Amino acid sequence: TSPLGKEPVKHYPAPEVASTLGKLAATERALDLGQKPTALSVAELTELATAKDGEFSARALRLLRRVDGAAAAPLLWKRLAATTQRSELKQIEEEILRLPVAQVVQGFPAFAEIEKGPLAAKAAWVRVVAVRPSLKADKAVLLGLLKGPANELTEAAWDAVPTVFGAADKAVLEEAAKG
Question: Global pTM?
């Protein structure tokens, strides 16, 4: 007979913290334990997420998504449009995909806003459109992406075809496939 599981779970209070990093850690700890985060409010997380300091802003934005997805969605879309590093873009794309379906449309940018950014940002935008039917993308824009050279963006555009286009668009898609 094992004593494992027979003793009550011991809860240790979180230490009091004053630094920004400590408050971020305390917020994350509370969320991981299924408790209401008290170290930072939504307003404070929003302020940290929009700050230029890259050290805390990514973590604050991730925590904001967990606390209040509606407040995080527009900030995630803005960050996607402004980011140039591929690794950071992948993290932002994953955070957007973790948003509840009803909240992902908040702040959803048109492709024209993303178009000026790097290829990876455009591809991330198209990949999110491909898996979220609630996001409406312009068919003409996606058709233009389908006809481009073979790269990450055209691959993502072809992945979005079942979500954006219907059976009535078959002739147009066949034309795009020919080049």
Answer: 0.86
